[in-house]
Design brief:
By secondary structure, this protein is of the alpha+beta class. It is about 30% helix and about 25% strand. The protein has an eight-stranded mixed β-sheet, with helices on both faces. The protein has a five-stranded mixed barrel with strand order 1-2-3-5-4. It binds one RNA strand through strand 1, strand 2, strand 3 and helix 2.
RNA sequence: GGGGGUGUAGUUCAGUUUGGUUAGAACGCUUGCCUGUCACGCAAGAGGUCGCGAGUUCGAGUCUCGUCACUCCCGCCA
């Protein structure tokens, strides 16, 4: 095999040459996308990061090079020297940017031969995901994957430039840190020099960025890996990347301004798209009321409608008793869907059951405006009229009802709304619909552990006017937390933090975290808060989810170069692996994993 | 922890409902022919632990039980 020769210096990349370059002597380097051997003449599509150029080997031009070209196969790595020539008029390939020209090779260097790849390097070939992950280096040669990874770079570059221009300071925070209170399960790292003790990998740099505000850094950001040892989903990986920021002497408005500016720059850089600012805002309560979810998809309407008041005394006992017991009856009008078959309705009932709904009641409005429904007979004429008006029932519509505890009703019907929109094709796949969701509850009640729990995290500030309710009615306290939702997916969230140790202690008390526990787990933060803390707040964005939406992918794995499987393994490196006994001894660890 | 889906040639899949001859297709691969293709064409050929293990049966890719892997979802993820 020949080494890179002195005269083989790349002059162009593979999407660069045009008709204006004809007669230029060039050197290209890249991988063999495709070989077409016509016996006499051989065509090679040479591919690099930028694109593809056709190379021609013609024995009349160089007998020696043509002979050498016969052994070329897919994915060989080549250096080619030759002259750019025009293609015959009727041979121009309009589908390709470089289709007007080709390179007549007079020199060929085979840098590497390649085994036949496990799958072809083309977007249209559908290799299964496990094969793709096993040969990720091949998968990343595919234009779609390559473009996703480059788009991610384009995004982070735009984000860094924007935040730098806004006066933010990029500061690294430790990966080897200590376990945080509440929240997700931590990844633990044993400490060799402190036998029996463990670091935790950060679930987020939350406490450190607050400490940086207390240090006076004013505006901090970091594009940083975070770690959570929980079960995975299409939009969840054990290690993921956050765009993390924190600001001092600000309130919600300024943080949202900065975040919107950053998102707008990102969309401009990646998609050359101008977003309309500012983004709309909706309170948590309103989102739950109208959409049933705290991450409403605003690309379509079909809002939910509460009817508890209309059916509280109805003859349909299921509805009446739910209302009597503090539950809620809500409905959604699927316009024009009265054509749904019994089977389709059964499927939707199963769908709602996933979210704990015990049933799905329905009313079809027939063309003559009469009702077809298993529950219609239970309603009085007045109730029917009231429902008809409230739900804007028209011939051809079907109404779905869920009656359950408030939480279940909202979740099930909210998810059903999304599902109906998917089924009916109501979603504009090219739309980007943003909304802020504000004024989340500060805490909720954990039924299993019988105590209050912070919805966001325990350092989130309550709304000032709600502070007095902390002791009297904790569940009614709203927080200064906000999420940014895009197309029904939460892409970022943050809050104004508590900057007074007094208030912090009060909130911790409310959460049932006593002083001893608080001091043990994050006493350093409480002490720091007493050292002169500025009012501050921040936000963190999930870079992977943002890129997933920007790249129109269904899974964040397709915007991560080396993602993990659902069982958090790496198919390429086969991590995790069993350490040697010697390693374990050094770490003072006894393993429970035995040979089987 | 729970529910659903998938697993057959290098790859993507058909075949499994109703057990029965030599397990097929496409792409890829190999060889030969071909001087204008660009998803080249033509001809020939190689290629299989039907995920793995038990069981039922005269006989299992197909039925039963178990198990593993990948995947979607619920729980979980402040």
């Amino acid at each position: 095999m020949t080494d890179l020769q002195k005269d083989m210096n790349r002059t162009h990349h593979c999407s660069q040459l045009r008709a204006t370059d004809i007669d230029t002597q060039v050197t290209l380097m890249g991988w063999v996308q495709n070989r077409r051997d016509h016996g006499g003449v051989i065509f090679i599509d040479l591919r690099d990061k930028e694109g593809i150029t056709q190379i021609v080997f013609n024995p009349e031009n160089s007998k020696e090079t043509h002979a050498k070209a016969q052994e070329i196969r897919s994915e060989y790595v080549l250096g080619i020297t030759g002259k750019v020539i025009a293609r015959p008029d009727d041979m121009v390939n309009a589908k390709r940017e470089t289709g007007a020209i080709e390179v007549m090779a007079d020199g060929l260097c085979i840098f590497s031969r390649a085994k036949t790849p496990a799958f072809q390097i083309e977007d249209r070939i559908e290799a299964s995901e496990s094969i793709r992950l096993q040969y990720r280096y091949l998968d990343l040669r595919r234009p779609q994957m390559k473009n996703n990874i480059i788009a991610r770079h384009t995004a982070t570059t735009a984000i860094r430039n924007y935040l730098n221009d806004q006066g933010f300071v990029d500061i690294e925070t430790p990966f080897l840190t200590r376990s945080t209170p509440e929240g997700a399960r931590d990844y633990l790292v044993p400490s060799r020099v402190n036998p029996g003790e463990f670091y935790a990998l950060p679930q987020s740099p939350q406490l450190f960025k607050q400490l940086l505000m207390i240090s006076g850094f004013d505006k901090y950001y970091q594009i940083v890996k975070c770690f959570r040892d929980e079960d995975l989903r299409a939009d969840r990986q054990p290690e993921f990347t956050q765009i993390d920021m924190e600001l001092s002497f600000v309130d919600e408005t300024q943080i949202m301004d900065v975040a919107e500016g950053m998102i707008a720059k990102t969309f401009k850089a990646v998609l050359d798209m101008d977003l309309k600012l500012p983004f709309p805002q909706i309170t948590y309560d309103e989102a739950m009321d109208r959409f049933g979810l705290d991450r409403p998809d605003l690309r379509f309407g079909m809002e939910l409608c509460e009817v508890s008041d209309l059916v509280k005394d109805t003859g349909f006992k299921v509805f009446a008793s739910v209302v009597k017991n503090g539950g809620m009856v809500k409905a959604v009008n699927a316009k024009g869907c009265a054509t749904f078959s019994r089977k389709q309705i059964d499927e939707l009932t199963d769908f709602a059951a996933v979210y704990k709904a015990k049933g799905l009641a329905w009313i079809k409005i027939k063309e003559d405006a009469s009702w077809q429904s298993p529950i219609a007979k239970f309603f009085t004429d007045q109730e029917q009229d009231a429902l008809k008006q409230r739900l804007d029932m028209e011939p051809g519509d079907i109404i779905f009802f869920v009656a359950d505890q408030i939480k279940i009703t909202n979740e099930a019907l909210g998810q059903l709304r999304n599902e109906l929109a998917r089924r009916k094709g109501l979603i504009d796949e090219d739309a980007f619909s943003f909304t802020w969701v504000t004024e989340f509850p500060l805490m909720d009640y954990d039924e299993t552990e019988k105590r209050y729990q912070a919805l966001h995290h325990p350092f989130t500030a309550p709304l000032e006017e709600d502070v007095e309710k902390l002791s009297s009615d904790p569940l009614a306290v709203k927080s200064r937390a906000y999420d940014l939702v895009l197309n029904g997916i939460e892409i970022g969230g943050g809050s104004i933090r508590i900057h007074s140790s007094d208030l912090q202690e009060k909130v911790l008390e409310c959460l049932g975290i006593d002083q001893a526990e608080a001091n043990d787990k994050f006493g350093f933060l409480l002490e720091a808060l007493a050292a002169g803390a500025p009012p501050h707040g921040g936000i963190a964005f999930g870079l992977d989810r943002l890129m997933m939406i920007l790249c129109k992918e269904d899974s964040i794995r397709n915007v991560i170069a080396f993602p993990k499987t659902q069982k958090a393994t790496c198919m390429l490196t086969e991590a995790p692996s069993i350490p040697s006994t010697a390693q374990l001894q050094e770490l003072s660890i006894k393993t429970v994993k035995t040979q089987e």
